Amino acid sequence: MRIATYNIEWFDSLFDVNGRLLLDAEWSRRYNVTRVQQLEAIAKVLSAMDADAVMVIEAPDSSRRRNGVEALEGFAEHFGLRTRKALLGFQNTTQQEISLLYDPDVVTVRHDPKGEETGKKGSHDAPRFDGVFRRDLDVDAAPELITFSKPPLEVELQTRAGALLRLIGVHIKSKAPHGARGKVEVMRKAIENRRKQMAQCIWLRQRVEAHLKADESVIVLGDFNDGPGLDEYEKLFGRSSVEIVLGEEGQDCLFDPHAEMILSRKLGPKPASSRFFIKREKRYLSVLLDYIMVSADLRKLEPVWRIWHPFEDPECYDMVELRDALLTASDHFPVTIDISL
Q: What are residue 145's DSSP bridge partners?
């Protein structure tokens, strides 16, 4: 079967307040792309991938007026996608939900959150992802209260053959230092926000370890907005958020071959799953932000990973329509894993 993660930039803005598709020639939130062009490009990419389940990052928002599941399913129905059912976990207020699009003929899924409900008091031991995690971030013996702005989506997935998987969809994001004045305050706020991001990944790692101790098959997939060697704060903290979730030597580690390539080499070509235009430098920057991490038992099944990068994957490059769709749909590219279960 094929499982994917796909961060679809500004997907939310392609639906009206009632969740209906905005199939018009008005500009989308992507530069020089209309809403109908982006919607058609997203559908082309999803059709070409032909995945059995897609973890959609930045999925349509759910609110008092709009149902994100109905919006996604309406999108899938309009474009005739095989992944025609949607699953949403805990709603958030960022207009960037984490949802699973899946083919109900191939898999059965349910939202299955773990951990205790903490209320405002919090817990040191992997509370439910819509709760509060207590963690001392600045070594002052006073634990801070950590929350997720985008709670990870925990999915119990069962295949037609009866295999059970735990999927955890994530969108880890360190807040920008908004409101900071001067270089010193900007740095202080940036470090503070990075500490919170690291604490979120420690929380996530605790949940992974609980599944591994229970001999459960685990896949963590999504956008980490971080990775080995990505920025200057890695030297300050000693490791990246990605490395925390993968696990350290001596632990039951998760595996992602693209993360492994970056961790094992300082020089040479590196994989990338996203492409951003740097306006002040007038160039594009390609970085690895999207991962599919698997537990050791799944790695033994020799799965095949693929980043659908329009300029680095030969098949994507040679298929002009797909290449154009990938560039139009989002600033991230899908990552897939093919695995026999």
A: 134
**In the chain, where are the structural domains located?**
2-338
* CATH code of the domain made up of 2-338: 3.60.10.10
DSSP 227-270: -TTSSTHHHHHSS-HHHHHH--TTS---B-HHHHHHHH-SSS--
Supply 121's token pair. 């008091």
Residue 133 near residue 127 (C-beta atoms within 8 A): yes
| Contact (Cβ atoms closer than 8 angstroms) between residue 109 and residue 171 | no
Give how far Cα 160 sits from Cα of 103, 108, 182, 192, 201, Å.
Answer: 11, 8, 57, 45, 32
CB 19 within 8 A of CB 68: yes
Q: Is-contact 98 170, C-beta < 8 A? A: yes
How many other C-beta atoms are found inside a 10 Å radius of the C-beta of residue 125? 12
Q: Are 53 and 101 in contact (CB under 8 A)?
A: yes
pLDDT in tens, 204-226: 999 999 999 999 999 999 999 86
Question: In 3-state terms, what secondary structure has residue 66?
Answer: coil
Across-strand partners of 110?
Answer: 156
Residue 315, exposed/middle/buried by CB under 10 A (0-12, 13-18, 19+)? exposed
Q: What is the pLDDT of residues 294-340, one digit of tens each?
A: 999 999 999 999 999 999 999 999 999 999 999 999 999 999 999 99
Distance, in Å, from the CA atom of 199 to the CA atom of 204, rounded to the nearest integer, reads 9
Using CA atoms, how far apart are residues 284 and 188, in angstroms rounded to an integer? 28
Cα distances from 214 to residues 9, 166, 208, 218, in angstroms, run 36, 11, 10, 11
